[in-house]
Amino acid sequence: MTDAIRLDGRVAIVTGGAGGIGGATARLMTLRGARVAVADIALERAEALAGELDGAIAVRLDLGDERSTEAMVATAVQHFRRLDILHNNAALLGPEIAEADGDVENMDTALWDRTFAVNVRGTMVACRAALPHLRESRGNIVNTVSNLALQGHLIQAAYSSSKAALIQLTRAIAASHGKAGIRCNAVAPGMTVTPALLEAFPPPVREAVEDETLRDRLGVAEDIAEAVAFLASDAARNITGEVLVCDGGCSAHVPGIARFRSFFGDNA
Ligand SMILES: NC(=O)c1ccc[n+]([C@@H]2O[C@H](COP(=O)([O-])OP(=O)(O)OC[C@H]3O[C@@H](n4cnc5c(N)ncnc54)[C@H](O)[C@@H]3O)[C@@H](O)[C@H]2O)c1
């Protein structure tokens, strides 16, 4: 039996590859044998990471810009002469965005449009540009969504709606291109400790989520990277159109579990 989670000979694009989850995924994919295009709007950070990874290149990407997104795919394919995996992981994030993105009654339409332009339109453009190459390699796409795409919350109405749209994009691509040998899946992280998260959410908010987690800690970027590498590998060869929730069980339990612990204890 072979180690099906190996990615030897594969070429992957990781968008947002200079960030927390994207960086961990680019590292893990390289360890598993892939060559990676680290694509990010923060080119210096992408170059620094690519410099550490065997065979990797850095590519500047502005996911909000159609031409830049198409050029990212073209540059990677020109360099590596093939494309097997597109990991759409970049998103519009940051403390000001998280602060401004609240409930619908107070929604700024410019923020809504920007969120959808980057997260949804940009990801669709990346998929559109990659699909002809993935058809040749019988490759696959993994989109990073969020467990907030599956549950209502008091905050981030634009972000969570955009991630829900990406789940449907995932299924649409899986349906249209499955017979051509292309798979498309999504990974849905819960709150995951990355520099972006630490900036955006203060300790009390993180502790509230940790209380809802069924494990003994919040997730870390490497947890998500493992899920992405699995979905991108031959081990997941019969999985397509799926959402793999990777949130430590946060969205898997009855409402109010944090309060129920005081009645029944953790092991009741
Ligand atoms: N960290 C969490 O708690 C969490 C939870 C659920 C989902 N996610 C998702 O995981 C993904 C990665 O998040 P992260 O926590 O690693 O954040 P991060 O900020 O560490 O990484 C995001 C990267 O995307 C890049 N980026 C931002 N805008 C871009 C653009 N227009 N074009 C190209 N690159 C751009 C940033 O420069 C950054 O390197 C995102 O899709 C996010 O929505 C994160």
UniProtKB/TrEMBL annotation:
Kindly state which keywords UniProt assigns to this record, in alphabetical order.
Oxidoreductase
**Entry coiled-coil feature ranges:** none
Q: Which GO terms describe its molecular function?
A: oxidoreductase activity
- Regions crossing the membrane: none
Does Oxidoreductase show up as a keyword for this record?
yes
Source taxon at top rank: Bacteria
Asked if Transport is a keyword of the record, the answer is no
InterPro entries assigned to the protein according to its UniProt record, in alphabetical order: NAD(P)-bd_dom_sf (IPR036291), Sc_DH/Rdtase_CS (IPR020904), SDR_fam (IPR002347)
Q: Which PANTHER family match?
A: DEHYDROGENASES, SHORT CHAIN, SHORT-CHAIN TYPE DEHYDROGENASE_REDUCTASE BLR2146-RELATED
Q: Which family does it belong to?
A: Belongs to the short-chain dehydrogenases/reductases (SDR) family.
**UniProt name for this protein:** SDR family oxidoreductase
In which organism is this protein found?
Aurantiacibacter arachoides
